[in-house]
Write a structure and sequence with these properties.
This protein has about 230 residues and is an alpha/beta fold. Helix content is about 45%, strand content about 20%. Strands 1, 2, 3, 4, 5, 6, 7, 8 and 9 form a nine-stranded mixed beta sheet that branches. A hairpin with a 2-residue loop joins β2 and β3.
Length: about 230
C-alpha cells in the first residue's frame, strides 16, 4: 500500500500530509483531534538530511503542539550508504532522531509507528522501534540483515542459518517473525481506522517488547535476563 492510499484510508481528506523528496510530514484530524504525521516513502535511504528533517518535525511538534500524538509512517531501505553521509556523521544524526522521539514520549506525546511498506536496518531501529508501540501492515517487509550478510558477520554457514530461521524468529526476516519477537506489537488488518484508534488508546509508556516476545515464544530469554539484571 502506498502512503497516499494509506492516509486516505485513515484520514480521508482530513489531512495536510505532503511529501518532500522522500520525506512525509504534516497533520491529520482523527476522531476530532489533531495528530502529527512524520515518515518516509519510496524505500527511502535514511541519510543525514532525512534523519535531521524527521528530528526537526518531531521537535516542532513538541514546541508547537504539546502532547499531540505522533504517527510515524515507515518505508525505508535503511541507512544511506554513502561516504558523504558517513563523513557528516550519519550515526549521530540517526541517534539524534531517536533521542527526539524518546524526548517526545517523555513529554507525554503518544508515538505510534506503522510499517506500511518496507523497514530495514538502522532506518527502522531509530524510528519505529523507539515508538511507544510499532505496528505493521501484513504485506510489509521487515528485516535487519539478509541471511548471506548474517552468515558473513557471524561466520555461521548460510545453510545453517536458513535451517535455524525455520524454527527461530531471531534468525528469520518477515513481519510475522517480528510480531513473534515483540518488535512489532500487532498487524493492522481490516479496519485500519479502528486499529489506529485502539493503538492510540492503549499505547503503553513502558517497553513491553521483551515481555511480548517471551509470551509469544519468539524471544524466550530477553525478559527474564532483563528482570535479573534490574534486581542484581
Amino acid at each position: 500500500m502506498n502512503w497516499q492510499t494509506l492516509t486516505q484510508t485513515l484520514f480521508g481528506n482530513d489531512h495536510t500530509i505532503h511529501v518532500d523528496d522522500n520525506f512525509l510530514h504534516g497533520h491529520a484530524t482523527f476522531d476530532g483531534k489533531q495528530l502529527t504525521v512524520i515518515g518516509t516513502t519510496n524505500h527511502a535511504p535514511i541519510g543525514v538530511a532525512l534523519a535531521l528533517a524527521q528530528a526537526s518535525a518531531v521537535l516542532g511538534t513538541l514546541k508547537e503542539h504539546p502532547g499531540q500524538p505522533i504517527l510515524l509512517l515507515i518505508d525505508t531501505q535503511g541507512q544511506q550508504l554513502r561516504r558523504r553521509d558517513e563523513l557528516l556523521g550519519i550515526h549521530r544524526a540517526m541517534a539524534h532522531l531517536g533521542c527526539c522521539i524518546d524526548l517526545a514520549r517523555r513529554r507525554g506525546h503518544r508515538v505510534i509507528g506503522l510499517i506500511y511498506d518496507q523497514a530495514l536496518s538502522g532506518g527502522f531501529i531509530t524510528s519505529g522501534l523507539i515508538a511507544d508501540a510499532c505496528y505493521a501492515l501484513p504485506e510489509a517487509e521487515i528485516r535487519v540483515m539478509r541471511l548471506p550478510a548474517m552468515a558473513r558477520v557471524t561466520k555461521i554457514a548460510e545453510e545453517r542459518l536458513a535451517e535455524l530461521s525455520r524454527s527461530n524468529p531471531v534468525f528469520a526476516p518477515g513481519v510475522e517473525n517480528y510480531v513473534a519477537m515483540g518488535g512489532v506489537k500487532a498487524l493492522w488488518q481490516g479496519d485500519l481506522q479502528a486499529a489506529l484508534r485502539d493503538a492510540l488508546a492503549h499505547a503503553s509508556t513502558t517497553d513491553e517488547r521483551a515481555a511480548d516476545g517471551a509470551a509469544r515464544g519468539g524471544r524466550r530469554l530477553a525478559a527474564d535476563v532483563t528482570a535479573r539484571v534490574l534486581v542484581a
